[in-house]
Specification:
elongated
Length: about 220
Amino acid sequence: MNKRAEQEAESSKIIHGLVKKVEQHPDNQDVYYQLGSYLTKVKDYVHAEELYKKAISHFDEKDIKADLLVYGLGNVFYEAELYVEAIQAFQKVTNPEMKENAFLMLAQSYMAQESYQQALAFAITAQEINSKNIDTNELIGDIFLALGQFENAARYYDLVLESDQNHTKANFQRGLVNMVLGLEFDTYFTRSRSANKKYFDAQKKRLSEIEAFIKSRDDR
């Protein structure tokens, strides 16, 4: 049996086990979410969407809020790059304990559509709930970078680096910001390369693009 066949067999075994858990606990939202998350992970978006919609309907009939499953459905749409549908799902999440994650996913969905102002609004709202969330601060940095607001981008990448000094992407992005601003950037790129050389090498093309941008700006 080759490696791919082994992986498919293992995946099938995991799915079978999760389906059994759903059958044994039909009124437990967590088991539906576990199965739906795994189907999403293996990119079986059709069955993941079908599962979540059936489960949501099941709990609706019992007049039970199913925010966890609505959030899971939003994740399916997001991973499938159906961002309009993802936004519609995440906007339905009202559970206070899930609001931070829902706001973050709304921000990421708008970011994927290059709707940067809407993305920023939701990301800032998520950040107000939890100012230490690395993913949120990184995303806000990315949004400000896309908007060309480099000082603001630097501020949020610095928040990421306060939590994780060797964060691969934040160091790379922070280096880009300083390169554009004409400040020292080697320290950040060195950290990024040390943390994940493969990632850094894959991003090198952006460095030449930034250098070309700076040169054209200086030549004006």
